[in-house]
Amino acid sequence: MKNLLKVLGVGILGVIMAFTTSDKKTIVIDVSHGGLDSGIAANSYKEKDITLEIANKIKALNESSNMEIILTRETDEFLSIHERAEQINELNPDFVISLHVNSAADKERMGKEIFVSDKNIQKDKSGDLAIRLFYDFNDSNVQIKKADFHLLENVKHPTVLIELGYLTNNNDLELLTSEKGQMEIAKSILSAVE
Ligand SMILES: [Zn+2]
């Protein structure tokens, strides 16, 4: 009996541990650019700052104990695209979202673009995430597109890259740089991975 209890005890503990480790989701938010690489710069704003501000909001908004949000950078530092892909793969995440903002010569051009790649080995799950984001963004101007960006190809986990809007368009600029607009974007992204 004592032996049986011991066996049962270990068994139950094993089940609980397996449950808690497999139940906890890891989400990586790739904060693009950084350091000397500002990314897009327009109207005195820089892509590297906007992506970090929105990523910080996503992390702060997460109240779930079953989900961990990890940012690829938390300061203004430069990471090469190869370092990013390697760092992300080591984290073994459930989902990866790379944040960017855009610019165009045409100031009327606006809206969000969600990119996925057929070369991602988790392309079906990446596509599912893109569709959830498409519906969760409170924006009538969202498109899902295909592109073989380095990160989308080389990360071995479900990955999307989002161009969150155009710094050269007045409506998008307000959304991307205001506290209210950034919160709206952060909430949409969080609800898509929850
Ligand atoms: Zn970018």
Could you explain the architecture of this structure?
With 194 residues, this protein is an alpha/beta fold. It has a single domain (25-193), classed as Aminopeptidase. It has seven helices and eight strands, in the order αβββαβαββαβαβαα. The chain has helices at 2-23, 47-61, 81-91, 123-136, 150-154, 170-177, 179-193, and strands spanning 25-31, 41-42, 45-46, 67-71, 95-102, 112-116, 142-146, 159-166. The strands form two sheets. It has a six-stranded mixed beta sheet, sandwiched between helices. Strands 2-3 form a two-stranded antiparallel ribbon. Helix 6 crosses helix 7. The mean pLDDT is 92. The site of zinc ion has 5 residues, from loops.
State the domain count.
Answer: 1
Radius of gyration: 19 Å
Instruction: Look at the structure and name the CATH superfamily.
Output: Zn-dependent exopeptidases
The helicity comes to: 40-55%
According to CATH, the fold-level topology is Aminopeptidase
Class from helix and strand fractions: alpha/beta
Ions, cofactors and other ligands present here are: zinc ion
The main sheet orders its strands as 4-1-5-8-6-7
The portion of residues forming beta strands comes to: 15-25%
Mean pLDDT: 92
Low-confidence stretches: none
The number of strands is: 8
Largest sheet composition: 6 strands, mixed
Structure summarized in a few sentences:
This protein has 194 residues and is α/β, with parallel strands linked by helices. It has seven helices and eight strands.
